[in-house]
Design goal:
single chain, alpha/beta, six-stranded antiparallel sheet, 21 helices
């Protein structure tokens, strides 16, 4: 019996164990199913109510922005403004449809689908009204357009807002339904747990107690947390601990809450920044407000925004937050300089951690103490750099803040681009309208004047041959010819300079607004204007040589260096054509004493022609010398010259192929000028050629010039007049209205107040009336030229010390230069007059450059970029100085 009892007991224990194991398995399966259901409900809670309500709110905001933009359409003044406002409406319309699609795809229930469909149809019904408003505005009936926008349009917007709010309420109601389902699942899990406890209480009361307590308390706590989230909308985390399925689910729930908080924080930051940048803000207000908001939002200890100046390749400080500037910091960064310059070069963000004081002081322009982290990001719009944003923190920048900065930089970049375009669009429209009316007529006029100048030059050559026997008549003819060339130079160069200057203005200001084809048109105009100016200069050089009035300046220089400099300029063209340039110099080549400019002109023409007319093979430059001369032979394997054309190769306007369909461009003046210049220097130029086998030109130049002719007297040094920079009035004098308008526009853009005059008499009257601090003066004017205006200004005690910047197309003689002394601070050629060059001269007069109170950093930078220019020709000196100063150099 005891044995049987033992078996029975053992069997019962086994049965009990099996039953407990069975109930454990069943309970585990039911619990897992319930927990999976809770997990699915949690996921649905995120995917449905949150995304649907967020998309509905975004669609609602888009409708409001569309309505605001429709008001902008009715209030627009110009067609350009109307089109920009319409484009904004269309962009917002796409975003609204995109968010409605999200709602449509995610919303649950037949009622929700109907509600979405009604909302979409209502939004589509608004479009005909907007189209009618746009058409009325384009037709000029802004009153009717405004009435429709305020009545019918506003009613549609109000109805759309209500519908989208209903969508939000519906989504929240669905969330409540999910929570109710979660409660049901939780109750099922509770019932299963109770049954398990009843079935196993006799066998494992203690185990059941702990299991029940653990499961019930965890599920209840998670349920309470989810219920609190549903009721209040506050994102509360679960406090469950331990390692089980429920605690894991609670951990997932907590991570979901964290992610939602992060997403809300990111979205709130983006929306708040957009709100800060909304409205009609200036560029300065935009950068200041955005930098302040972003720095505060990420808890930065300091922040800075550097605007990128593409023209000077420089990042300049435009706005800052808690920025402490000192001698170790810089407000400007060049490419690759510090973290700001490196970000500008790479166009990628850079994060610095574990920074020492030396690193911070040496690499940033932000703080005076060592931050823990520095994060710099490029501000890019359509792959173009508009600035660099830099923030520094006393703690490590976490990934969330880095993500926020990455999200807001496109918003900030778009704002910067829009603000810059807004400043340029007005000037662009005005300049393009004026330029389009004048360019065609000026091009025809320039072509006619060029032909007239060519014919006149030929007539003058014949007259000079006929009058050589009479000395007095020759002198008179030369005087008349010189005067004629000067006048013709002015008459041709003045409109040509206007074409080139306005072309440069349009290219620089309109490159982001015009199409590629329109920009190509402007580049063709600028390039052809430059070529035509070169042609005029060649004709004038030829006339001077033939009349014997070409001024020569003799000096000792290295011919090999001159040839190497020309080769450097031609190497790119030669490499593109696959041509090899060979050089052969003797080791003991002496320096020569002659006019370096004319020698360079001859060699440039010969070597340029050799590369131009050679399609394959090589160009060889061979230099040798004897006791008196240096011989430079330039040979090529190009097209060559036929026997019948070879005797005429040095004649003016003579080309091997003179047809309009010829392959190679040119005027036929280059070799004529080179030949006559070689003769004028006491040398010679010979040619050998075989058609199809290339050509050889041999230039012979005396090593030492026998006659020393003094060059023109330099201008006396002029000291700028000390005048208060607070005075901003500048008198602009020129008989060409387009030149006056161009210079006045340069000055007004940077805050000066230009007063304009188109005659000498008017200039004197305005100078007496307004007492400007400086004058820009043309020389060639019909009623009273610039020399007489200068004389009268000097004779008046009130105006005798007024600084004058001469801006002229006249080719100045030595006599002219002697008159431009005293209060004439500089002379600019109209062809070289840019806003940068002109404003540099004005700043010199104001004494704004080189002041002794500059910061140590500024003095250090300018000293490092200081250039010494040595030149005996004052006009050339001024031009060189202008070019260097426009590139940021300080010139002595």
């Amino acid at each position: 019996m005891d044995y049987l009892n033992r078996i029975t007991i053992k069997s019962r224990m086994i049965l009990s164990f099996v039953l407990v194991l069975f109930f454990f398995i069943v309970f585990a399966m039911l619990s897992i199913r319930g927990m999976n259901k809770l997990g699915e409900l949690t996921s649905t809670l995120y995917d449905h109510p949150l995304k649907v309500s967020t998309a509905a709110l975004k669609a609602k905001a888009g409708v409001i922005r569309m309505h605001r933009s429709m008001k902008d359409v009715t209030m627009s003044k110009t067609e350009m403004e109307i089109q920009l406002a319409i484009q904004t409406v269309q962009s917002e319309e796409k975003l609204v449809y995109r968010n409605l699609d999200i709602v449509k795809n995610l919303i649950l229930g037949e009622e929700g689908e109907k509600l979405v469909q009604v909302t979409i149809e209502l939004f589509a019904g608004w479009k005909p009204i907007r189209v009618e408003v746009e058409q009325l505005t384009i037709q000029g009936d802004t009153a009717a357009a405004g009435t429709i926008t305020r009545t019918t349009g506003a009613e549609y917007v109000s109805r759309l807002e209500r519908k989208m709010m209903e969508l939000t309420v519906y989504a929240i109601a669905k969330a409540d339904g999910f929570m109710e389902e979660a409660r049901i699942v939780q109750q099922g899990v509770l019932r299963h747990t109770i049954l398990f406890i009843i079935a196993t209480i006799l066998l494992s009361l203690l185990i059941a107690y702990f299991v029940t307590k653990s499961i019930l308390s965890s599920v209840s706590a998670l349920k309470d947390t989810m219920s609190e989230v549903t009721k209040t909308g506050a994102l509360i985390k679960s406090t469950l601990a331990g390692k089980n399925e429920i605690s894991d689910m609670a951990a997932h729930f907590n991570r979901l809450v964290d992610r939602l908080k992060d997403q809300f924080w990111l979205k709130d930051g983006q929306n708040s920044l957009s709100g800060e940048m909304a409205g009609d803000l200036t560029y300065e207000e935009l950068v200041t407000k955005s930098t302040l908001f972003i720095s505060r939002y990420v808890d930065a200890c300091a922040g800075a925004l550097y605007a990128y100046d593409a023209k000077h390749s420089l990042c300049e400080l435009k706005a800052s937050y808690a920025f402490v500037e000192g001698k170790h910091f810089s407000s400007e960064f060049g490419p690759g300089e510090g973290i700001v310059g490196q970000v500008a070069v790479e166009k990628k963000p850079i994060l610095l951690k574990g920074i020492t004081r030396e690193d911070a002081l040496g690499k940033t322009g932000t703080v005076t103490e060592s931050p823990r982290s520095i994060y710099a990001l490029p501000l890019l719009y359509e792959k173009s750099l508009y600035g660099v944003l830099e923030v520094a923190t006393f703690e490590e920048i976490n990934p969330l803040k880095m993500e926020f900065l990455s999200l807001v930089t496109p918003i900030l970049s778009t704002g910067l681009y829009t603000a810059l375009q807004g400043m340029q669009i007005k000037n662009l429209l005005e300049a393009s309208q004026a330029a389009n009316e004048e360019l065609a007529a000026q091009a025809e006029e320039l072509q006619a004047q060029s032909e007239e100048l060519r014919q006149t030059s030929e007539e003058l050559q014949e007259q000079n041959v006929e009058l050589t026997a009479q000395r007095e008549q020759v002198e008179e003819a030369n005087r008349l010819k010189s005067e004629f060339l000067s006048n013709m130079s002015h008459e041709l160069r003045t409109p040509l300079n206007s074409v080139m200057a306005l072309s440069r203005v349009l290219i620089s200001q309109a490159k982001d607004k015009l199409s590629e084809e329109e920009l190509n048109y402007l580049n063709v105009i600028a390039r052809n204007g430059k070529n035509l100016l070169s042609l005029i200069n060649d004709i004038l050089d030829l006339a001077k040589i033939e009349s014997g009035r070409m001024d020569l300046s003799y000096k000792r220089f290295s011919l090999s260096s001159a040839i190497e400099a020309i080769i450097e300029r031609l190497e790119i063209i030669a490499e593109e054509k696959g041509i090899e340039i060979k050089i052969e110099f003797p080791d003991n080549l002496p320096q020569i004493e002659t006019d370096e400019i004319r020698v360079d002109q001859i060699l440039q023409n010969l070597m340029g022609n050799a590369v131009k007319f050679t399609e394959k093979g090589h160009v060889a430059i061979t230099v040798r010398s004897d006791t008196e001369n240096i011989h430079v032979k330039i040979s090529d394997t190009g097209i060559g010259i036929s026997e019948e054309d070879l005797p005429h190769i040095f004649e003016e306007f003579r080309q091997v192929d003179g047809t309009t369909a010829r392959q190679y461009e040119g005027t036929g003046l280059g070799l004529a000028i080179a030949y006559k210049a070689a003769k004028m220097l006491g040398g010679d130029l010979l040619v050998e050629s075989v058609l199809g086998n290339g050509s050889s030109f041999t230039l012979t130049i005396p090593i030492k010039w026998q006659e020393v002719i003094p060059g023109p007297e330099p201008f006396a040094p002029i000291q700028p007049v000390e005048i208060s920079p607070a005075q901003k009035t500048i008198l602009v004098v020129d008989d060409e209205p387009e030149v006056v308008a161009m210079i006045a526009d340069y000055l007004s853009q940077v805050g000066y107040f230009p007063v304009t005059a188109t005659s000498g008499a008017q200039a004197l009257a305005l100078a007496e009336k307004h007492r400007p601090f400086a004058i820009t003066l043309d020389i060639l004017m019909p009623d009273m030229d610039g020399f007489e205006v200068l004389e009268r200004l000097r004779n008046d005690p009130e105006t005798k010390n007024l600084p004058v910047v001469v801006v002229t197309a006249k080719e100045l003689t030595a006599e002219d230069k002697s008159k431009l002394t005293g209060n004439v601070t500089s002379v600019l050629a109209k062809s070289d007059t840019t806003s940068t060059a002109l404003l540099k001269e004005i700043k010199i007069i104001l004494g704004e450059m080189g002041k002794p109170h500059q910061s140590p950093k500024s003095r250090e930078t300018k000293t490092a970029k200081r250039v010494l220019v040595v030149e005996d020709n004052q006009t050339a000196m001024i031009q060189i100085r202008t070019v260097l100063e426009s590139e940021g150099f300080l010139v002595d």
